[in-house]
Amino acid sequence: MYIVNRFSHGDSGADGLEGFGQGEALLGEPHCLDEIEDRLHFFTEECDYLQGFHILCDIHNGFSGLGTKMAELLHDEHPGRGIISWGTCPVLSPYRDRQKDVYQLLNCIMGIVRLSSHSSLFCPLTLNSSLGLRPGPPVALPNVLYNTEWQYHSSAVLAVTVDTLTAAYRTSSCRLSMTQLAETLNFCGRKVTTAASSLPFPVGPSTSLPDSLFPYLRFPPWIPLSASGGQHLSEGGRSFSQLAVMRGVSVDPHISHNPAGTRPRSALHSGGSNEDVLQCYLQTVFPGAVSVANVLQSQCILGPTFPQFFSPYVTKDGFTMQEPLKDPPDVHSIPVLAALQTTPALEHTLLSLYHDLKKVDVRRWPSWFTAGTEESDFQEALNDLRTLAYCYSNRPGHETDDSD
Q1: Distances in Å between the alpha carbon of 315 and those of 56, 125, 308, 318?
Q2: Engineered SS bond to 96: which of 100, 136, 270, 359, CB 3.0-4.6 Å?
Q3: Average of per-residue pLDDT values in the chain
Q4: What's the CA gap between 84 and 221, in Å, rounded?
């Protein structure tokens, strides 16, 4: 662990890390860089099986610059290893000043472009419905009654999602390494992904996975957690590639509520393992997408400090009941279904940031550039953002032009 004492996380002004350039410059200081390199070498030399690295950093402030320099360092020091970066952002207050709005937008654009270029995959993580100048209302999660003003709550949702998705290559039963998974998802330059989660996944204590997924054959049960708003619905749920991880549904898939002697209700009920069922579900809802399914029998265990923000329909084991419980217990574990996707919705998400910035006269905010980012570098990143957005277009022959 290396602690930066000069800046206070979450603060603004002199004690906060407000600009992308500040974060970049911080890791460029010899003392800081030497300390981090020494600690990295120590832990990597002790590691028996090094798949790669995770980078988790704020994307809306100067830590996006720090995370970018860290990704560059890992990319240079450990070529061939996987790097998956997660850019987090808390639920933003609707009562912010204009400077914070513009700074957040500038930092997000730089962070998305630079982190994705040096990572195997990059995923924004937030309960905001947008990362632009108008973040909109935070997402609503069925059976989770979280306080949008408490980062203690929002970070818990994101942590469960990351823990579930990364279990696909962290557990002994995994079939793909981090690098193999990234190569499966990031083809055609699509390094930016979206995360989505259903927690707790709505399943009863004796319900099989086919019966649980059957009501969601039109739209998946998960909620986007990457500031894509409602685009997953307007895009018809399309996806180029995806990883889906289910944990905590251990009922035999052959146990279903089909009447004896009748035909299966759907292809999901045609037999096979739970992993076969999830793979069949992905192919049904997202035809033509490259899909990887992973199923873990164990639920997500919630520690004693995890917030108890669940609805009265959730049992102590995380199962969802039809009627509210009279005396709701503390929830100790939950089933979770999470997805990591590259979708056409990302074209809209990234272009929205591009067009928001085009409405801003950046010359009115010279203090952000004096922190260390050259205006020419920012203009290059802005062009790269637009190019990146068109990687997710599913319109044949679409070309970028200045009219966009």
Answers
A1: 31, 27, 12, 5
A2: 100
A3: 87
A4: 25
Calculated CA dihedral for residues 362, 363, 368, 372, nearest 10 degrees: 110
Task: Report yes or no: 93 and 147 within 8 Å, Cβ to Cβ.
Answer: no
Angstrom distance (rounded) from CA 176 to CA 170: 10
**Which amino acid type is present at position 284?**
T
Task: Locate the domains of the chain by residue range.
Answer: 196-341
Q: Is the pLDDT of residue 104 over 60?
A: yes
Q: For residue 141, what are the β-bridge partners?
A: 144
3-state secondary structure the chain: CCCCCCCCCCCCHHHCCCCHHHHHHHHHCHHHHHHHHHHHHHHHHHCCCCCEEEEEEECCCCHHHHHHHHHHHHHHHCCCCEEEEEEEECCCCCCCCHHHHHHHHHHHHHHHHHHHHHCCEEEEEECCCCCCCCCCCCCCECCECCCCCCHHHHHHHHHHHHHHHHHHHHCCCCCCCHHHHHHHHCHHHCCECEEEEECCCCCCCCCCHHHHHHHHCCCCCCEECECCCCHHHHCCCCCCEEEEEEECCCCCCCCCCCCCCCCCCCHHHCCCCHHHHHHHHHHHHCCCCEEEEEEECCCEECCCCCCCCECCCECCCCCECCCCCCCCCCCCEECEEEEEEECCHHHHHHHHHHHHHHCCCHHHCHHHHHCCCCHHHHHHHHHHHHHHHHCCCCCCCCCCCCCC
- Of 390, 345, 395, 394, give the one whose Cα is nearest residue 232: 345
Q: Residues for the chain: how many in total?
A: 404
User: C-alpha distances in angstroms, 327 versus 203, 308, 312?
Assistant: 20, 14, 8
pLDDT digits (tens, 9 = 90+) for 210-230: 999 999 998 899 999 999 865
CA 172/CA 371 separation, integer angstroms: 45
Q: What does DSSP say about strands 52-58 and 82-89: parallel, antiparallel, or unpaired?
A: parallel
Selection from 242, 245, 120 nearest residue 173 by Cα = 245
Tell me the two tokens of residue 218. 């039109």
HSE value, Cβ hemisphere, 13 Å, CA-based, for 386: 17
CA–CA separation, 404 and 399 (whole Å): 10
